[in-house]
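User: What would this chain look like folded?
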Amino acid sequence: MGNCWAQACPPLSDPLQKSLLSLRNQISAETEPQAVTEAGRRIEKELSLCAGRAAEYFRKKAGDVKEIMMVLASTAEKAGERDQRYSVQLNKITVRLQSIAGLEDFTVMRQSLIQSANELKSSVDQMTRESQSSLQNLKSELAGYERRLQEADGLAMREELTGLDNRRSLETKLDARVAQQRQFSLLVLDLNGFKAINDSLGHMAGDQLLQQFGSELRSAVRSTDLVARWGGDEFVVVIDGDEPAIHVDRITQWVLGDYTIQAGGVSRKTKVFASIGVAVWSPGETVAQVFSRADAAMYDQKRVKASKSAN
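Assistant: Here's the prediction, encoded as structure tokens.
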């Protein structure tokens, strides 16, 4: 369902895919029918929200196209009015030049020719200035629309809640790294016990925690590294180079630990821990393959932690 939606409307596919991935992770073979029913309701709600977003998105796109067409039509109309105005002036000059043929006084003829030449030059110069001004105004307005479209595309590559790169943006940038043979390391982080926070404090508190965690994670790595929210409580960090250990240590020390969130009008402290899977990209490996290794390493770490907690 998520993949079909991504094909139908790529810029708006991220929220639905994140929700579906989150639901997929929550549903297991032992899940009771009641939980499956609740998941179905949530999917229906997400589909309804996505339909609304899509309608608004295409409405705005249509509005942008309409505005651009109006600018072009207005410019063409002004050019037509200008040409008509100068056509009248040039016709007057033509009539005057034709009347010169009947003149016998060379002095009058000379003055009439000079006047006509000056008026013709003035008209041509004015037409040139107005043409340049019209073109400059058109370029300026179209540049404004281009900036707006670029900003819209940039927003489409951002995850709505945290402002980090979304899944689509991350995959695009990873594909570029592989195509350019740029060495990188992939870190997959999954927050431990996040569902319990949502269940006990509510989804608003959970959203606050995700926002804070995303901000801390972004500040703990270099500006050249990538940080994205993959979906649900999963985050991905792409580190340039093949020595990720120091970055994992920094994230463990600086990002994991105590957080303060607002729930029910009261500040509450909670500890955030995460399982981190790491994989270093090898030349010839696809993005899916290196991500699969990092994801498997993350789940191995999660199982080890769960086993220790049980003992």
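The CA atoms of residues 3 and 17 lie 8 Å apart. If you want, I can go into more detail on any region.
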